Amino acid sequence: MSQVQSGILPEHCRAAIWIEANVKGEVDALRAASKTFADKLATFEAKFPDAHLGAVVAFGNNTWRALSGGVGAEELKDFPGYGKGLAPTTQFDVLIHILSLRHDVNFSVAQAAMEAFGDCIEVKEEIHGFRWVEERDLSGFVDGTENPAGEETRREVAVIKDGVDAGGSYVFVQRWEHNLKQLNRMSVHDQEMMIGAPKKITKRSTATNVRKPLTSPALI
Fold first, then answer.
1. 164 within some domain
2. pLDDT for 143-180, tens place per residue?
Protein backbone atom coordinates (compact mmCIF):
# COMPACT_ATOMS: atom_id res chain seq x y z
CA MET A 1 0.00 0.00 0.00
CA SER A 2 1.34 3.43 -0.92
CA GLN A 3 2.31 5.79 1.88
CA VAL A 4 -0.18 8.61 2.44
CA GLN A 5 0.75 11.96 3.98
CA SER A 6 -0.32 11.95 7.61
CA GLY A 7 -2.61 14.98 7.32
CA ILE A 8 -4.97 13.61 4.66
CA LEU A 9 -7.08 11.05 6.54
CA PRO A 10 -7.46 12.24 10.20
CA GLU A 11 -10.86 13.33 11.54
CA HIS A 12 -11.98 15.61 14.37
CA CYS A 13 -8.71 17.44 14.93
CA ARG A 14 -9.11 20.43 17.22
CA ALA A 15 -6.64 22.89 15.72
CA ALA A 16 -4.86 23.56 12.44
CA ILE A 17 -2.42 25.88 10.72
CA TRP A 18 -2.40 26.65 7.00
CA ILE A 19 0.69 28.20 5.46
CA GLU A 20 0.70 29.26 1.80
CA ALA A 21 3.91 30.32 0.11
CA ASN A 22 5.62 30.95 -3.20
CA VAL A 23 8.85 29.31 -4.29
CA LYS A 24 11.94 31.53 -4.33
CA GLY A 25 14.73 29.08 -5.04
CA GLU A 26 15.31 26.10 -7.30
CA VAL A 27 12.95 23.13 -7.26
CA ASP A 28 15.79 20.86 -6.12
CA ALA A 29 16.04 22.93 -2.94
CA LEU A 30 12.27 22.67 -2.50
CA ARG A 31 12.44 18.90 -2.94
CA ALA A 32 15.21 18.60 -0.34
CA ALA A 33 13.35 20.88 2.07
CA SER A 34 10.22 18.75 1.77
CA LYS A 35 12.23 15.68 2.78
CA THR A 36 13.77 17.56 5.71
CA PHE A 37 10.33 18.65 6.90
CA ALA A 38 8.99 15.10 6.62
CA ASP A 39 11.80 13.90 8.88
CA LYS A 40 11.11 16.67 11.42
CA LEU A 41 7.40 15.87 11.33
CA ALA A 42 8.08 12.20 12.08
CA THR A 43 10.06 13.27 15.16
CA PHE A 44 7.14 15.35 16.44
CA GLU A 45 4.65 12.55 15.73
CA ALA A 46 6.76 10.17 17.83
CA LYS A 47 7.21 12.74 20.63
CA PHE A 48 3.52 13.69 20.92
CA PRO A 49 1.51 10.55 20.02
CA ASP A 50 -1.58 11.72 21.94
CA ALA A 51 -1.79 14.86 19.79
CA HIS A 52 -2.74 12.78 16.72
CA LEU A 53 -0.55 15.06 14.65
CA GLY A 54 -0.66 15.13 10.88
CA ALA A 55 0.58 17.38 8.11
CA VAL A 56 0.43 17.77 4.35
CA VAL A 57 2.73 19.53 1.92
CA ALA A 58 0.95 20.26 -1.37
CA PHE A 59 2.07 22.04 -4.53
CA GLY A 60 0.37 24.25 -7.08
CA ASN A 61 0.13 23.21 -10.71
CA ASN A 62 3.26 24.90 -12.06
CA THR A 63 5.39 23.91 -9.09
CA TRP A 64 4.26 20.30 -9.29
CA ARG A 65 5.07 20.16 -13.01
CA ALA A 66 8.58 21.41 -12.26
CA LEU A 67 9.05 18.90 -9.43
CA SER A 68 7.67 15.92 -11.32
CA GLY A 69 8.98 16.70 -14.78
CA GLY A 70 5.41 16.96 -16.01
CA VAL A 71 4.48 13.43 -14.94
CA GLY A 72 1.22 12.65 -13.12
CA ALA A 73 -1.47 14.77 -11.44
CA GLU A 74 -3.50 14.99 -14.64
CA GLU A 75 -6.41 16.70 -12.86
CA LEU A 76 -4.31 19.37 -11.13
CA LYS A 77 -5.09 22.84 -12.47
CA ASP A 78 -4.77 26.46 -11.39
CA PHE A 79 -7.98 27.93 -9.98
CA PRO A 80 -9.23 30.47 -12.57
CA GLY A 81 -11.44 32.59 -10.32
CA TYR A 82 -15.19 33.05 -10.85
CA GLY A 83 -17.65 35.93 -10.76
CA LYS A 84 -16.82 39.57 -10.20
CA GLY A 85 -14.61 39.11 -7.19
CA LEU A 86 -16.96 36.62 -5.54
CA ALA A 87 -14.54 33.71 -5.92
CA PRO A 88 -11.15 35.30 -6.61
CA THR A 89 -8.07 33.24 -7.30
CA THR A 90 -5.26 33.41 -4.75
CA GLN A 91 -2.96 30.85 -6.33
CA PHE A 92 0.29 30.08 -4.49
CA ASP A 93 3.01 27.50 -5.09
CA VAL A 94 3.07 25.62 -1.79
CA LEU A 95 0.53 24.72 0.90
CA ILE A 96 1.61 23.40 4.30
CA HIS A 97 -1.34 22.13 6.35
CA ILE A 98 -0.70 21.09 9.96
CA LEU A 99 -3.44 19.61 12.16
CA SER A 100 -3.75 17.90 15.54
CA LEU A 101 -5.56 18.02 18.87
CA ARG A 102 -3.04 20.56 20.22
CA HIS A 103 -2.37 24.04 18.92
CA ASP A 104 0.94 24.25 20.78
CA VAL A 105 2.21 21.18 18.94
CA ASN A 106 0.98 22.60 15.63
CA PHE A 107 2.87 25.82 16.29
CA SER A 108 6.07 23.91 17.01
CA VAL A 109 5.68 21.96 13.77
CA ALA A 110 5.08 25.21 11.86
CA GLN A 111 8.35 26.55 13.26
CA ALA A 112 10.06 23.36 12.12
CA ALA A 113 8.55 23.81 8.66
CA MET A 114 9.96 27.32 8.41
CA GLU A 115 13.38 26.02 9.44
CA ALA A 116 13.19 23.21 6.87
CA PHE A 117 12.04 25.32 3.92
CA GLY A 118 14.07 28.38 4.86
CA ASP A 119 14.86 30.75 2.02
CA CYS A 120 13.48 28.51 -0.73
CA ILE A 121 9.94 29.78 -0.04
CA GLU A 122 8.33 33.13 0.75
CA VAL A 123 5.31 32.88 3.06
CA LYS A 124 2.30 34.75 1.70
CA GLU A 125 -0.37 33.77 4.21
CA GLU A 126 -0.59 31.97 7.55
CA ILE A 127 -3.94 31.12 9.13
CA HIS A 128 -4.53 29.46 12.51
CA GLY A 129 -7.84 27.65 12.86
CA PHE A 130 -9.77 25.82 15.57
CA ARG A 131 -12.78 23.56 15.77
CA TRP A 132 -15.60 25.23 17.69
CA VAL A 133 -18.07 23.71 20.18
CA GLU A 134 -19.89 20.65 18.76
CA GLU A 135 -17.73 20.99 15.63
CA ARG A 136 -19.77 23.96 14.43
CA ASP A 137 -18.40 26.76 12.31
CA LEU A 138 -19.10 30.39 13.23
CA SER A 139 -22.41 30.31 11.36
CA GLY A 140 -23.66 27.87 14.00
CA PHE A 141 -23.92 24.93 11.59
CA VAL A 142 -22.12 21.64 12.22
CA ASP A 143 -19.27 21.49 9.74
CA GLY A 144 -18.44 18.48 7.60
CA THR A 145 -21.63 16.46 8.11
CA GLU A 146 -21.37 14.99 4.61
CA ASN A 147 -17.69 14.09 4.87
CA PRO A 148 -16.94 10.35 4.76
CA ALA A 149 -16.25 8.84 8.20
CA GLY A 150 -13.63 6.23 9.07
CA GLU A 151 -10.10 5.91 7.74
CA GLU A 152 -10.83 3.26 5.13
CA THR A 153 -13.84 5.12 3.74
CA ARG A 154 -11.89 8.35 3.62
CA ARG A 155 -8.98 6.58 1.94
CA GLU A 156 -11.37 5.20 -0.66
CA VAL A 157 -12.61 8.64 -1.72
CA ALA A 158 -9.55 10.84 -1.09
CA VAL A 159 -6.47 8.83 -2.01
CA ILE A 160 -5.35 7.91 -5.52
CA LYS A 161 -4.98 4.14 -5.73
CA ASP A 162 -2.91 3.36 -8.79
CA GLY A 163 -0.26 4.66 -11.13
CA VAL A 164 2.47 7.21 -10.60
CA ASP A 165 0.19 9.26 -8.31
CA ALA A 166 -0.67 6.34 -5.99
CA GLY A 167 -0.89 7.53 -2.39
CA GLY A 168 -1.42 11.14 -3.44
CA SER A 169 -4.49 13.32 -3.31
CA TYR A 170 -5.86 16.67 -4.48
CA VAL A 171 -6.63 19.62 -2.21
CA PHE A 172 -9.01 22.45 -3.05
CA VAL A 173 -8.39 25.35 -0.67
CA GLN A 174 -11.31 27.69 0.02
CA ARG A 175 -11.91 30.45 2.55
CA TRP A 176 -15.48 31.56 3.12
CA GLU A 177 -16.54 34.94 4.50
CA HIS A 178 -19.97 35.08 6.16
CA ASN A 179 -21.90 38.20 7.12
CA LEU A 180 -22.95 36.83 10.52
CA LYS A 181 -25.09 39.85 11.46
CA GLN A 182 -27.12 39.43 8.31
CA LEU A 183 -27.29 35.65 8.76
CA ASN A 184 -28.51 35.89 12.34
CA ARG A 185 -31.36 38.22 11.32
CA MET A 186 -32.79 35.33 9.30
CA SER A 187 -35.02 32.62 10.76
CA VAL A 188 -33.42 29.24 11.38
CA HIS A 189 -35.55 27.80 8.58
CA ASP A 190 -34.31 30.39 6.09
CA GLN A 191 -30.73 29.83 7.22
CA GLU A 192 -31.14 26.10 6.60
CA MET A 193 -32.55 26.71 3.14
CA MET A 194 -29.58 28.94 2.30
CA ILE A 195 -26.84 26.75 3.79
CA GLY A 196 -28.45 23.53 2.63
CA ALA A 197 -28.23 21.69 5.95
CA PRO A 198 -30.15 21.38 9.24
CA LYS A 199 -28.85 23.59 12.06
CA LYS A 200 -30.05 21.82 15.20
CA ILE A 201 -28.19 18.54 14.78
CA THR A 202 -25.46 17.98 17.36
CA LYS A 203 -23.63 15.01 15.86
CA ARG A 204 -22.45 14.17 12.38
CA SER A 205 -24.22 10.81 12.54
CA THR A 206 -27.65 12.43 12.94
CA ALA A 207 -27.28 14.50 9.79
CA THR A 208 -28.18 11.54 7.58
CA ASN A 209 -31.50 11.13 9.44
CA VAL A 210 -32.74 14.63 8.61
CA ARG A 211 -34.63 15.50 5.45
CA LYS A 212 -32.28 17.68 3.41
CA PRO A 213 -33.44 20.78 1.52
CA LEU A 214 -32.93 20.87 -2.24
CA THR A 215 -29.99 23.23 -1.77
CA SER A 216 -28.07 20.73 0.35
CA PRO A 217 -24.55 20.09 -1.00
CA ALA A 218 -25.28 16.38 -0.65
CA LEU A 219 -27.96 16.67 -3.35
CA ILE A 220 -26.05 18.83 -5.81
1. no
2. 777 777 878 878 887 888 888 888 999 998 888 888 99
Owning domain of residue 120:
1-131
- Half-sphere exposure in the Cβ direction for 56 (13 Å, CA): 22
**Can you spell out the DSSP letters for 104-150?**
HHHHHHHHHHHHHHGGGEEEEEEEEEE--GGGB-TTSSBTTTTS--S
Secondary structure of residue 194 in the 3-state scheme: helix
Pairing of strands 121-130, 15-23: antiparallel
Query: How many other CB atoms are found less than 10 A from the CB of residue 34?
Result: 19
Counted domains in the chain: 1
Helix/strand number for the chain, H first, E second: 6, 4
Q: Do the domain assignments include residue 62?
A: yes
Is pTM beyond 0.70 here? yes
Distance (Å, whole) CA 152 – CA 113: 28
As annotated, the active-site residues are 143
